[in-house]
C-alpha cells in the first residue's frame, strides 16, 4: 500500500512511500510514487501517450469500477468517485498528468500505474482527501480492483486502435472517392501508358485514376476487416489469464459498458490466455496500415512523375500549388503534399517492423513489449490518417489534367500506337516502322502511310488511340 507524508523541507514537493521506499513527488502532481519513479527511470524520448490511449485506459478503469460495484466489491461512494474522476479525464482534462515516456518498463506497468494514481488522487480529493494520502480511494486496491497491467494494457490498446484506425479507414475511403470522381471526369481523355518507365500503349486518365481509387478502397477494406479482431478483449484475465481476484462476471460487465461507449461489437475474448499472450491482432492491424502505406506511397510516386517538369518532365497533371518550392529558385513549385505522404508511408512501414519484432518477442504468459507495439500502431494510425486527409484536400480535389500535354506526348511517341498495327502487318514490320519513325522524328502515321502498310482510312482507324484503351483488336 502506498502512503504519503508532506515534505517538511520543501514547499514544492511531497514525500510518498511505496513498496520500495520514499519518493519525492511534485506537490501539485496528480500522479504518485510509482509514476515518479518511471519519470526518473525513463527520460527516453520525451513522447507521451496518445490521447486515444489515455481515453482507452481510463474507459477501462471507469467500466471496471461499475462492474466491481455491481459485484458488491466496491462501495457506491468509491464507484461514484472513480467514475467522476474518469469522466474528468475523458472530457479532456488532466491529460498533462500522464507523464510516463512511451518507452518504459515492459507490459506498460508504469503507464498503468500513472493512470491508477491520477484517478485515485482525483477521486480521493473528491471525497475530501488531499493529494498523495489515498485515504478513501487507493490506486491499487480500488482503481485497479480485479485488474492487472497484463490484461488492462492489451485491452486499452485494442480500444485505442479501434478508435484511431476508424479514421484511417474513413480517410482512405474519401481519398479513393476523390480519385474515382477525377476518373469519371476524365474517362475518355487519352494519355501515354508506360511500363518500365517506357512508352507502352495508350490509356485514359480515367483508367489510371480509377485504378488508384480501386487500390485505396481495397486497402481500406483490408484494414477495416482487421479491426474486427480488436473487438475481442482479454480484460478479466488479470495477471496470467486465470482471472484470479476478479468476479466471474467481471469481464462480461466491463465489455458490455465498453461496447456501449465505443459503439463497437466488443465482447470478451474466447480465450483469455491467448488474448494476453498473442499480439496477432496488432500485427494484423499494423500490416493493414503498412499495405495501405505501400499502395498510397506508390501512387504518390506516380503523381510526382506525372507532375514532373512541367516542361522538361511528364507534365501531364497539375497539382494545386500549396507553397513556394525553393528558397533560391523563384517561381518553382514542388509536389509537396505527395512528398510529405511518401515520408509518412516510410514511417508507417518502419513502425510495422517494430510491431512485428515486438510481437515475436513475447514470452510465456505475457508479451512485455506492448508499450513499443502500442506506440508504433498509434503513431502509424495518426500520421496515416492525417497525411491521407491532407493529400486529398490540398492536392487531389484540385488536381487538373493537361490534355494538350497528354496529346503532345501521344503524338511524339510511335511506340505508343504501334502495338495496334501488329495484328495487321506483323510484329517485325511494326517494330521496323516504330524504329524508323523514332529515328526520323516523324509520326508513326506518316511513316506507315508512306510505306503503304494499310489504306489511309484503315490506318486512321487502327491508330485511333481512344479505341485502343478499350481492349480488343483494332479492326
CATH topology of the largest domain: Fumarase C, Chain A, domain 2
- Based on CA atoms alone, the radius of gyration comes out at 31 Å
CATH homologous superfamily of the largest domain, by name? Fumarase/aspartase (Central domain)
Q: What's the structural domain tally?
A: 3
In the sheet with the most strands, the strands line up as 1-2-3
Question: What shape does the CA trace take?
Answer: elongated
From the N-terminal CA to the C-terminal CA, the straight-line distance is 88 Å
State the major sheet: 3 strands, antiparallel
CATH architecture of the largest domain: Up-down Bundle
Order of helices and strands: EEEHHHHHHEEHEHEHHEHHEHHHHHHH
CATH class of the largest domain: Mainly Alpha
- Estimate the helix proportion, in percent: 55-70%
Number of strands: 9
What do the pLDDT scores average to? 95
Number of helices: 19
Throw out a few tags for this protein.
Ribonucleotide Reductase Protein R1, domain 1, 19 helices, 475 residues, 3-stranded antiparallel sheet, Fumarase C, Chain A, domain 2, Fumarase C, Chain B, domain 1, mainly alpha, two-stranded antiparallel sheet, 3 domains
Protein described:
Helix 10 packs antiparallel against helix 11. The chain is built from 19 helices and 9 strands. The strands form 4 sheets. The chain has a 3-stranded antiparallel β-sheet, covered by helices on one side. It is mainly alpha-helical. The protein has helices at 33-41, 51-70, 76-90, 109-126, 139-143, 149-185, 205-227, 250-262, 272-277, 280-306, 336-360, 370-396, 403-412, 415-418, 422-425, 427-440, 444-450, 456-462, 465-468; strands at 3-5, 13-18, 21-26, 190-195, 198-204, 232-233, 267-268, 317-318, 400-401. Strand 2 and strand 3 form a beta hairpin. It has 3 domains: 25-145, Orthogonal Bundle (Fumarase C, Chain B, domain 1); 151-227 and 271-323 and 332-404, Fumarase C, Chain A, domain 2, CATH 1.20.200.10; 414-468, Ribonucleotide Reductase Protein R1, domain 1, CATH 1.10.40.30.
